[in-house]
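[audit] Reproducing an earlier prediction to check determinism. Same input, same settings, fresh worker. If the tokens differ from the archived copy the diff job will pick it up downstream; this log only records the rerun itself.
[audit] input (114 residues):
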Amino acid sequence: MLFLIILILSFIAGFILPWWMVAVVAFLAAIIVGKTSGKSFLSGFAGVAIAWVILALIKSIPNENILAGRVAALFQLPDWIYILLITSILGGLVGGMAAWSGVLFRKAFQKNKR
């Protein structure tokens, strides 16, 4: 459930908001829906990484990957697909850490259930 919420909201936010809003989306979604730290991190990582891959492909494929290819050449990478991979890993780390922080934030303010 958390994965789908983060994926959909990150995808929508990617069109209209700055890149860092995926961290806010993952953080708030994890506060509301997140259960455990590990699952929240994986949900945030996978949700944002997949959303960023889809967004990057939507913007890169129509121009035949010209800009991505030039950026890859700038970083001395053999192909533009490496830029896509690095982008998804960085986005995934941002989303995963934000979701993890959201769960820990909620747990910090919960009353102990004894």
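[audit] rerun output stored. Observation attached for the diff report: Helices lie at 2-16, 21-33, 37-60, 66-74, 80-108.
[audit] end
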